[in-house]
Write a sequence for this structure.
């Protein structure tokens, strides 16, 4: 069993709190497994009777009747009647179809159409069940209806959202065992989707490419009712190749036109990027003025939730170690509870004619968690003196007390350079330093 202790502890913390626990996240990251295997095992080991646990897999044809929200609500209440406490797991709740309020249809259960207003949906039945004193409710889903990052807004402040991610590097390396260096190299290339981790190298590649094409893209297309998908596909490839680079919609549109010789509207680019973010495929990192202490500008960096998916989009042809290490550092900072921005600041220097010239410099990440604040530069290696000078330069220009860290792909112990900046190997940084 692959351990997911962080998420198990979140479920334990929110157990019996009176709110439904809505588990969202990218497909195939282990939402159903977390509930039906890991959390169920915990409950059974902590004095919960198996007869007090109800698991309804709504994608099973034997449970097709319960896709009607009112029929589902009635069944769950009947199962839990007379019991002190029931733990109810509703899996694949996107299968629940909305119906028109039977009060308006002479008691008949009629499926609702898109524009119908007086409807009863899976949100209503989940909120209704969660108000029952003897029901502790847990919900997952696996397509765009439940993957959407805005799903929790439908519950407003009446649910606990647990966003599940692929395996962190700590989870991955713990499961793999052996050399941490080998684990990091594998993690960079193939990521941490649980089912991919269990496969051979050739199987990983096929699995990740097919998963992206046949599952993630299908979800986005269905959710947003897209007809023409070639631009979406090419745009995703372009973002994959520009991982960790400052870009905006206009720049992408121009690059798209120069590379693909096709025009794409800036607004279309923004809309498509929104689809990728909304489905948890990519995450957006905004720029932050390190001197003005505010978020600025339209330029952004985009990082994939899973490096294996990013590489799959490029057919594993360009597994750039520096890009992937930066992507992993960003993901792990977020996973460990940091808020993360791209650090930027302006300096003014004189050119050879004595004229003042304003220059914008950048730090890969400005990370904050509580009172901890770090400036972080990420690079594959510091062996080259030119690379070392480039990574250190922004730190030398920043005259403040924020701790300055260079994370390198080299396997080195934490140490200080001549400027007092921390130099640390990626493995030590990911598994110890940011915990």
């Amino acid at each position: 069993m692959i351990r997911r202790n962080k998420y198990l502890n979140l479920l334990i913390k929110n157990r019996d709190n009176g709110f439904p626990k809505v588990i969202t996240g990218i497909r195939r990251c282990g939402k159903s497994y977390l509930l039906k295997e890991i959390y169920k095992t915990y409950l059974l080991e902590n004095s919960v009777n198996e007869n007090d646990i109800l698991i309804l897999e709504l994608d099973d044809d034997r449970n097709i009747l319960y896709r009607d929200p009112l029929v589902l609500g009635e069944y769950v209440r009947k199962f839990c009647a007379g019991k002190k406490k029931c733990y109810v797991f509703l899996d694949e709740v996107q299968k629940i179809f909305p119906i028109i309020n039977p009060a308006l249809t002479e008691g008949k259960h009629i499926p609702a159409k898109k524009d119908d207003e007086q409807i009863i949906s899976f949100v209503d039945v989940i909120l209704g069940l969660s108000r029952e004193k003897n029901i502790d409710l847990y919900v997952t889903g696996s397509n765009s209806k439940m993957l959407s990052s805005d799903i929790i807004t439908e519950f407003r402040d009446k649910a606990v959202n647990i966003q599940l991610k692929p395996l962190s590097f700590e989870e991955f390396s713990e499961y793999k065992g052996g050399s941490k260096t080998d684990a990091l190299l594998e993690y960079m290339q193939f990521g941490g989707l649980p089912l991919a981790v269990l496969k051979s190298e050739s199987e990983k590649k096929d699995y990740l490419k097919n998963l992206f094409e046949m599952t993630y893209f299908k979800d986005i297309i269905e959710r947003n009712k897209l007809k023409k998908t070639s631009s979406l596909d090419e745009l995703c490839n372009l973002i994959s190749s520009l991982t960790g680079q400052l870009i905006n919609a206009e720049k992408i549109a121009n690059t798209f036109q120069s590379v693909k010789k096709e025009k794409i509207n800036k607004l279309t680019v923004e809309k498509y990027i929104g689809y990728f973010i909304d489905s948890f495929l990519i995450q957006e990192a905004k720029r932050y003025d390190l001197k003005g202490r505010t978020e600025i500008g339209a330029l952004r960096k985009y990082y994939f939730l899973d490096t294996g998916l990013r590489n799959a989009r490029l057919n594993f042809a360009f597994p750039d170690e520096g890009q992937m290490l930066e992507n992993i550092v960003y993901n792990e900072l977020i996973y460990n509870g940091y808020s993360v921005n791209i650090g930027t600041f302006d300096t003014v220097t004189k050119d050879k004619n004595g004229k003042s010239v304003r220059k914008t410099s950048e730090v890969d990440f400005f990370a904050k968690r509580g009172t901890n604040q770090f400036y972080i530069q990420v690079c594959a290696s510091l062996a080259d003196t030119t690379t070392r000078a480039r990574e250190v330069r922004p730190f030398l220009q920043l005259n403040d007390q924020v701790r300055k860290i260079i994370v390198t792909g080299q396997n080195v112990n934490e140490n200080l350079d001549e400027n007092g900046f921390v130099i640390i190997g990626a493995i030590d940084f990911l598994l110890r330093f940011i915990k």
